[in-house]
Every structure is written in structure tokens, then in C-alpha cells.
Amino acid sequence: MTASTDRLSRPLAPSDLRIAGSRRHRENFIRVAFLLAASLSVVISVAIVLTLVGNAAGFVLQVDLAALWTDGWFPRRAMYDIKTIVAGTMVISAIAMVVAAPLGIGAALYLSEYASTRSRKLLKPIIEILAAIPSVVLGFFALAWISPNLVQAIFGAPLFNMLAAGIAVGILITPLVASIAEDAMHAVPAYLREAAYGLGARRRTTSLRVVAPAAVSGIVAALLLGVSRAIGETMIVALVAGATGGSLFNINPLDQGQTMTAAMTALAIGSDRVRGAELTFESLYFVGFLLFVFTLGLNLLSDAFVRRVRRRY
Amino acid sequence: MSAARPALTGTDFVEQRLRGTGTTDWRSWLLEGALLLSLLIALGILIVLVGDTLIKALPIFSERPIEFLTSIVSARPERAGILQAIIGSLTITIIVAVLAIPIGIGAAIYLEEYARDTRMSRFIRTNIRNLAGVPAIVYGLLGLAVFATVLRLGNILLAGGLTLAVLVLPVVVITTSEALSAVPNAIREAAYGVGATRWETIRSHVLPYAAPGIFTGTILSLARAFGETAPLLLVGSIAGTFNFVGPPWEQAFEGYTTLPTMVYHWSGYPQDEFRALSAATIVVLLGVILLVNASAILLRNRYDRKW
Fold first, then answer.
1. Chain A partners of B103 at a C-beta cutoff of 8 Å?
2. Segment-wise mean pLDDT, segments of 10 residues, chain A, 313 residues
3. CATH top-level class for A65-312?
């Protein structure tokens, strides 16, 4: 108490504003701790890249390169055909986008342009709850319901097929596409809409000719991120796309197919987890590396589109 | 047709143009209907998914609900249960919560409150966004190579927990960052104005206002970890039978399984008995996840604050 009255008795000097030593130490300690937490993400990235590049390089150096371009993906028979797993992934992602693009963008446009505040509160949770469904649950749904009741009933396909997997992956990424597209439409300034209404445009014209074009970068970003998520989706394809033991090159969606992710789970579990058979197991990292490169490329591209939206408005 | 129309006076004309031509605007209706339909399809999928699962799970829950929850995994479907999976999933979620939440919130506080806009902080930000986009199964490879092999943890639950903590971390950072950046600067300036240091400002002013957002984001990311399967398959989550049952602190160092792993495992069998086991496990899994999500949505609606 006396110290503070002492201080007040003389004019304030700059040194009085400096914080006390213990307070400064605590301050610095906390700052460094937070900095370390933030830097951990860099450590994780480096670990991921090193793991993938190191092991994938080991695989590529040892493998007979002709085995990377043959008739199919049969790692236990040393047939590591890249085009088989890439084609399977592409087929399933394409089907997924056919489902997710209209559903996701449609839902986003309705929520952003048509729904009143009240109906929005009721409708938005549909998308949020769909987003919360774990992929393994959708995989079960695809196997137990989509495949027998839709795909088999209509096309007479076998139980395990890429179409059912693609539809389920599409359902899985719909909420992602919807929420990013809606953010983009939300970012379109109100004055653009008001200008359209002022000219006598209907809501339909405003939505399709003003809001959608203005948000196009964000919509493209949403679709790209959707593709990236579809490529990386594992459990649905592992359960429904079939071909767990390997697959011949196939792009017919009504038949079994092998994706990069399903190839990885097949390698990692059960009898395929043979660490002694050197290259069979190492190919796991090689596929992981391919997957990482594909998704990273799509994510960076998507990020560039999102930044374009931010810059403009 | 046009000859039958009465002549319009000036006011009539304007009024008619403003009200539309009198005929229904079918195309607008069609568009609005189609857009609404996409939401209704999503709702329909949810209803069919939940309904179909409940019907398939009915035999289990009507015949032996308690035994199903308290029995261990068995190759014989009439005796199999999910006790180990429940313990495994809970233990993993606790490990993820203990590791990913404090580190993630700390990282977000650094990026939002401390870091200036330097090349370094921009790099960390981009890096975290990209980490959030890395497919889950790639984290499984990381866990397999680093936690299971280099750290020699092997196929124990701790390795799986660490892997999922790493997987969830970027999501926690991103949602926390959003919550922090939504707090207006005036709040911070008020604290600085009365002589608070940066940490005092964060603790007493920024965090309390950002807390609902941070809380919602983190429990949603925990729910995500709870339902994650693919990376755990690579770090030794057992999709099969084993005998160990123990409390979380012992389970952490043993072989393990989780609820989603069991869903995956039992879905692989074509017989109806195993389908029922799968469906019943999904009911438990989805029950927890939907409960967490619903409370998060309610919490957000309640504390949603417009500055």
C-alpha cells in the first residue's frame, strides 16, 4: 500500500509502466508454449512427408518397374498396376460428384437465397447431421441398403459394385460441398442482390444470374474439395466396392473395382499384413504417397479459389 | 387472345407488371422446388439410413440388449458383444481430448493473438489448412510408421489414440481460430487499456467470449474421432476376436478395438446375424455422435452472438 502511494506522490516515469519481472516471465513462458503448440503442425507435416516419401522411394527403387503397369492390382503376386487403382478411384469419385454436386449446390442455394431465417434453423441441421455420420456407417448403409435396393434392383449388378460405393461417397461429401458453397454465396454482398431486385429481377433470376456467378469461385472450390475428400474416402469403398484381394483393371461402375484407399486397407489388415514379404507391405506407403499428392494438389487448387472469393469481396 | 383483353389504363398496367403477368411463374416454382428437393433428399437419406439400421438392429435389442453391451467380441454371433469396443472408443476419445484439445487451442491462440502477419505465421496457417485436408488413412500410415514402429508402441490403443489426436489437431486449431477471430478487437483494447498484458487479456477477455465457439468446435472434432475407422485399421485396431477386457488405463497399453472397427468387421460377413450385430453397434455409435452433435447445435444457437 505504501509503495503505491509512494509512486503517486511523484510524477509518473516510463519505468512505472513497465511490467514487473515475474509477470513478464510468465508472459514469455506462455507465449513460447503457444508457439511450440503452433509449430507442432509443421513437425507433423514433415513427419507425414518423410514417412511417405522415404518408404515410397524405397518401394520404387526396389520394385520391378514393369510391375507398376500390368493387368491389375495384386500386391501379393507382385502386380502393382497403378492405372487400376487410379481408375477405380476416378470412377467412384466421378459417381460421387454426380450425386454431391447437384445435392450440395442445390441445398446451398436454397439455404442461402430462399430459406427464411426460421426455416433455415430447421433445414440447416439436416446438412449438419448428415455431416456427422461416420463413413463406416455410410459404408454399412451402402452395403445393406443402397446396393441391394437401388443398384441390384435396377441394374442387376453384383452386391459389391463401384456404383453403390460412389453413391454413398456422394452422400458423404454432400454436406461438405453444401457448407463451403453456402459460405461462398453468403459472402456475396447484399448490394448485388438489391441491385438485381431493384431492376425488377425475380428471385430465380437473382439467384442464378447474380448470386451464383458471383460465388462461382467458391462453388468451384467446394467441388474441388469434394473430389479431394472422395478420393481419400476409405471405409465405404473398402466395404462396398469389392475387390478386397486385388482387382483387374476395371472401369465398369456396375462391377467390382479397386481404389487407392481400399487397396491400402486391404494391405493393412488381415492376412495381408505380412511384414516379411517386403515389397507387398511397402507398396502400402507408395499408394499412400500417390493419394497424398493427389489430395494435396486438389486442396491447394481449392484454396486458391477460396482466396479469390475473399479478395474480391 | 390479345384482342379479348380489356384495354389497360396506366395504373392497371403498372400494377399488372408489378404483380406479374397473372399466370403462374412455373419456372420459378420449379427451381425453388428443385432446390428444396435437394434438402429433402438429404433428409430422406437420413431417415432411411436411421430407420433401416434400427430395423436391422431390432433382433439384438429385443432379445439381449444388456448382454450385447456387456459381452466381449466372439466369433459366434449369438454371443458377441461390444464391451471392448465401448471401452476402446472411450479410451481413445479421452486420449484425443487430453492431447489434441490443449495443444490445438494453444496453437490457435498463438496464431490469432500473438503471431504477426509474417511469412512464418502464414506458412503455419497454410500448413494447418492442408493438414486438415489430408485423407484420414494417410494419418494411419503416419501412426503406423511413427507411433507403432519408430516409437515401438506396436499395436496398442495408445498408438491409435496418438494417431487420432494428430488427425483431429488441425480441425481443433481451425475451429478455435474461427471462434477467436470472431471476438471483436474492442474487447481486447478494453483490457489493454487498463494495463492487462497479452495473456491476461486473452484469459480474462478473449477466451470467455470465444468459449462457446471453441467448446462446440472441439466436441464436434471429438465426435469425429469417435467415428473414425480407417487410420485405426492401420495402427492395429483389431477387427476380430480377442479376450482382453480392462479399465481404460490398462486398455491403453493393450490390443484394442473400437465401435467403428466392429461395424466394419461385422459388415464383412454376409449372414443376417452379423448384419444385426453391425446395425446394433451403429445404433450405439450414432446415438453418441448424434447426441453430441445435437447438443453442439443447440449450444451454438443459444450462445450465438452477433457483434
1. 37, 40
2. 56 74 88 94 95 91 86 84 92 97 96 92 91 95 94 90 96 96 92 92 92 93 96 94 80 89 82 56 90 95 84 71
3. mainly alpha
Pick from B266, B245, B267, B262: which is nearest to B254 by CA? B245
Total Cβ atoms within 10 A of residue A246:
18
* DSSP count for chain B of H helices, then E strands: 14, 0
Helix or strand holding residue B47 (H, E): helix B26-63
B140: chain A residues, CB-CB within 8 Å? 264, 268
**ipTM of the prediction:** 0.89
Interatomic CA distance for residues B74 and B266, integer angstroms: 11
Task: Identify the closest residue of chain B to A284 by CA–CA distance.
Answer: B141
**Minimal C-alpha gap between B1 and chain A (Å):** 26
Q: Where are the domains of chain A?
A: 14-62, 65-312
pTM to 2 decimal places: 0.90
Alpha carbon distance A150, A164 (integer Å): 8
What domains sit in chain B, N to C, each tagged with a CATH number?
A: 66-303 (1.10.3720.10)
Chain A interface disruption, residue of B15, B23, B35, B53, most A CBs within 10 A:
B35
Give the residue on A whose Cα is nearest the Cα of B263: A136
For residue A32, the chain B residue with the least C-alpha distance is B110
CB-CB under 8 Å, B223 with A45: no
- Residues A10-44 as b or e (16 or more Cβ within 10 Å = b): eeeeeeeeeeeeeeeeeeeebbeebbebbebbeeb
Summarised one tens digit per residue, pLDDT across range B30-76 is 999 999 999 999 999 999 999 999 999 999 999 999 999 999 888 88
**A285 and A80 Cβ atoms separated by less than 8 Å:** no
Name the DSSP class of B306: -
Q: Please list, residue by residue across A157-166, b when 16 or more beta carbons sit within 10 angstroms of its beta carbon and e when fewer do.
A: beebbbbbbb
Q: Which of B53, B106, B115 sits opposite A33 (nearest CB)?
A: B106
